[in-house]
Specification:
With 332 residues, this protein is of the alpha/beta class. The chain has two domains: 164 residues, D-Maltodextrin-Binding Protein, domain 2 (3-Layer(aba) Sandwich); 97 residues, Periplasmic binding protein-like II (D-Maltodextrin-Binding Protein, domain 2, 3-Layer(aba) Sandwich). The chain contains eleven helices and eleven strands. The protein has a six-stranded mixed sheet, with helices on both faces.
């Protein structure tokens, strides 16, 4: 009897040991099995925007590679901070991602947010990958009569009342407009809109004189001479619009503002999941079809390690933060 009990006890210990050994690989397998369910890409802007359209294109290709649905979840409101904050508070499990343009960095600086509604721009998220850059372009209604920035500035200095549209107060387009005003010593009046589309519609109709926008949304109008491109906000000419000079060429060497977008995950998302997503998205950005599609939005692919996006975000925080303070930019 004692012998039988000893055998049973030894068998139980062996079984328990086997179970313990099996549990550890199971946990590793669960991590390796990511994703085991659909992934949500939060876009803090309405459907139909550039950001939304690019997110859907990338999500479709990411789904094909991960063999799980990747769904875009639009959470617009409060200048993008509503959706951004939602992702910042989400579980760090790789199933909730944020695809965002660079107002992600500046929106908390220009909006009066409660601590509960804000988020930590530099330390509250895990950078995954910078997807693209989008040059900002200054366009003019043909009836204004200016075909270059020097001509526009000369009109303003002579006393002509001019206006410029932006897709929103506190946006990069607003910041570059006010920076140019200060650098040129003029006062071209800012007219903020709620989004890119209405600002473009009104400059095409001649209700505002000029507008700062991303390149892709006005390419059809500039190609038809319905809008005149005056300058690019990047430091160098864009290969997507090589004939459009920069503000640097116009004599404003320090006035450089562009747009970018990228993927972030909630803080604490495992590093191996970040690397996995980064690898897939880098491969997606190598696709000629994706590069061509990005070009229709006036965007140029970037890619690289998560640190590239982290550096871009930190630089934006420092440079744009100082400008916002110096120029007294607010979203009011």
């Amino acid at each position: 009897m004692n012998t039988l009990r000893r055998q049973l006890a030894l068998g139980a210990l062996a079984l328990a040991g086997g179970c313990c050994c099996a549990i550890l690989p199971a946990a590793a397998q669960a991590q390796a099995a990511y994703p085991a369910r659909p992934i949500s890409i939060v876009v803090s802007y309405p459907p139909g925007s550039d950001t939304d359209s690019i997110a859907r294109m990338l999500g479709e290709r990411l789904s094909q590679r991960l063999h799980q649905p990747v769904v875009v979840d639009n959470k617009p409101g409060a200048g993008g901070t509503l959706g951004n904050g939602f992702v910042g508070r989400a579980a760090p499990d790789g199933y909730t991602l944020l695809f965002t343009p660079n107002p992600f960095t500046t929106a908390p600086m220009v909006m009066r947010l409660s601590p509960a509604a804000s988020y930590d721009v530099l330390h509250g998220f895990e950078p995954i990958i910078q997807i693209a850059t989008q040059p900002l372009v200054l366009v003019a209604y043909p009836g204004v009569g200016a075909k270059s920035v020097p001509e526009m500035v000369a009109q303003a200095r002579s006393g002509k009342a001019l206006t410029y549209a932006s897709p929103g107060a506190g946006s990069p387009m607003h910041i570059v407009g006010e920076w140019l005003n200060r650098a040129a010593g003029v006062k071209i009046t800012h007219v903020p809109y709620r989004g890119v589309a209405p600002s473009v519609n009104d400059v095409v109709a001649g209700h505002v004189d000029t507008a700062w926008v991303t390149l892709g949304v006005v390419s059809q109008y500039t190609s038809q001479n319905r809008l005149i491109p005056l300058a690019i906000g990047d430091a160098k000419r864009s290969p997507l619009a090589p004939n459009v000079p920069t503000l640097v060429e116009a004599g404003y060497r320090d006035v450089v503002v562009g747009a970018w977008n990228g993927f972030f995950a909630p803080k604490g998302t495992p590093a191996d999941l970040v690397r996995l997503l980064n690898g897939h998205l880098n491969e997606i950005l190598k696709s000629p079809e994706v590069v061509a599609k990005l070009a229709t939005f006036g965007a140029l692919p970037v890619g690289g390690a998560p640190e590239v996006l982290a550096k871009t975000n930190a630089n934006e925080y420092q440079v744009m933060g100082k400008l916002i303070k110096d120029l007294a930019i607010t979203a009011d």
